[in-house]
Amino acid sequence: MNYKILVADPISKDGLHQLYQDEAFEVIHNTGLSEQELIRIIDDFDALIVRSQTTVTADILRAATKLKVVARAGVGVDNIDIDTATKEGIVVINAPDGNTISATEHSVAMILSMARNIPQAHASLSHGTWDRQSFRGTELYHKTLGVIGTGRIGIGVAKRLQSFGMDVLAYDPYLTEAQAKELDFTRATVEEIAEAADFVTVHTPLTEKTKGMIDSDFFDRAKPNLRIINVARGGIIDEQALITALNEEKIAGAALDVFVNEPANHTPITQHPKIIVTPHLGASTIEAQEKVAISVAEEIIDILKHQNVKHAVNAPSVIFSEDDELQPFVNLAQITGEVGIQLLPKAPRELKITYAGDLALDDTSLITRTLVKGVLQQDMGDHVNLINALVLLNEQNVTYTIEKSKKKKGFSNYIEIELINKGDRVKIGATVLNGFGPRIVRINDYPVDFKPEQYQLVINHTDQPGIVGRTGQLLGQHGVNIASMHLGRKQIGGKAMMILSIDHPIDENVRQALLNIDGFRRAIQVTLNPEHLIQNY
Question: How many whole angstroms from its chain centre is CA 11?
């Protein structure tokens, strides 16, 4: 059987060598196509290979009746409509490991260039000025490196800079004490890194949790000689806060390869004299581009000829029709995982999953994967998906157990997840009520009953008269509208829980004001992905 492959973006032909050599494949390069041009021709192809230039829209995917694979020769897949691909039964793959070495080395190059003012000195001398005094640098030897995010790239950067004699402080929600000891790292919080580090390198995904995590508070804590590097994702560093910190000499310098808005042409962040900038070159090496092309070529061959999938970011083999009775529970699992992880103060080391009632009789493997994905996405972002969720959970040394019980537990179908980290435990129980959709029905020992919304406030307090009124009054003073309120308690005058659905998120000032109410012990804002809340029941 012959397969036709469309290469829609510039891809290394050397990397696609295996496709060219295999007689089963016909490879056609046709780059720079518009959406309408792709729609006209895509029906003739079995696989599509892109980088970041081509956006693979829902209309393109619906027109591709023969298409079995969309391959992104790189890491990110934000230019591909994953949901539509999944519904159409099209596998979406990427090459998550191809640029690891290149991004690692670029990070080290940025640190060295910044420490010795190499770009500035080069620019000065190339314009005819011999100026040694203005570009005096600093050594890395015996300095402290702060690493925020200890995935492959973060660890790779740290190991290389340890060879320069640097001490490493590391933060990652899933970094254990044993792992840190083995790597010769010292575990630290982000605040501790801000206060102690001479250099900081950022290697986290961009999520709601990490967006702007390096902000004015971070720079206020920093030493004046701090230099910070970002070769990960634009937006992790608050760009305006960075410019202010440099202008006020709170820190010494920065090196950025990624930006909030790209291309970043003629912007304050790229024009600042204390910031070294490169145009998103972390993966732009000959070797990296060849590696990602080799990776997707190998996987396309495996998928089309042998039905083997390794780096899929979706799961089209387990697709539900809108009528399927399990589909609402897949959506419920995502929501339950998102709620649970936001209520646990630390990353979990153990998960306990329970299915009860009629659901216990079904194959719950997809629900389990979705539940785990909901837990991990807060810290790993789009890197985690249904295919790799359990693998990534294992890589973070998080154990999980599954228990099934035919007992109803008050509901015909019931999902419960308990997240555990030593003394910290959070238990979330959830169900789908026919005609009413998803409901959270238990948080820890409190029976509750609320429909998940985009924004919730979960408040632990002492049960006492007037507390509901004071809460509503305070939120009203800050312009926060309450959509619904749900209360749970164990006994009169004892510990209690209040869950408020609100129309808009609150800031830290409002949260602190809530904690000043007599009887309040804890107030946590839980934010859910609105896409997971849109369901027809």
Answer: 26
Task: Please report the pLDDT score of residue 315 as a whole number.
Answer: 65
Q: What is the pLDDT of residue 43?
A: 94
Concatenating the DSSP letter of every residue in 265-313 gives -S-HHHH-TTEEE-SS-TT-SHHHHHHHHHHHHHHHHHHHHH---SSBS
Residue-level pLDDT at 163: 98
Strand partners, 527: 455
- Contact assessment for residue 199 and residue 145, using Cβ atoms and an 8 Å cutoff: yes
How many other β-carbons are positioned within 10 Å of the β-carbon of residue 189?
A: 10
Q: How far apart are CA 335 and CA 370, in angstroms?
A: 9
Instruction: Note if 280 is an active site residue.
Output: yes
Choose the catalytic residue: 262, 325, 395, 403. Answer: 262
CA distances from 185 to 132, 166, 228, 422 (A): 36, 10, 19, 22
Predicted local distance difference test score (pLDDT) of residue 316: 57
CA 157 to each of CA 111, 184, 228: distance values in angstroms, whole numbers, following the listed order: 10, 13, 13
Catalytic, out of 51, 106, 227, 233:
233
Place of tokens 């192809």: 45
Sign of the Cα torsion 250, 256, 262, 268 reads positive
Q: If we measure between CA atoms, which residue out of 406, 437, 405, 401 comes closest to residue 418? A: 401
Residue written as token pair 């790209």 = 262
Taking residues 189-194, what's their average pLDDT? 98
Residue 210 — φ and ψ, nearest 5°? -95, -10
Within 13 A of 226's CA, how many CA atoms are on the CB side?
25
What pLDDT, in 10s, does the model give residues 299-350? 999 889 887 777 788 865 544 444 467 778 888 999 999 999 999 999 999 9
Catalytic residue among 62, 152, 280, 511: 280
Q: What is the DSSP-derived secondary structure letter of residue 530?
A: G
Least confident of 122-136, 158-172, 379-393: 379-393
Q: Where do we find the tokens 């209309």?
A: 59
Strands 455-462 and 520-527, how do they pair? antiparallel
Burial label, 465 (beta-carbon count in 10 A; 0-12, 13-18, 19+): exposed
> How distant is the alpha carbon of residue 300 from its chain centre?
26
Instruction: Provide the whole-model pTM.
Output: 0.82
Q: Alpha-carbon distance 240 to 256, whole Å? A: 13
Residues 46, 303 contacting (CB under 8 angstroms): no
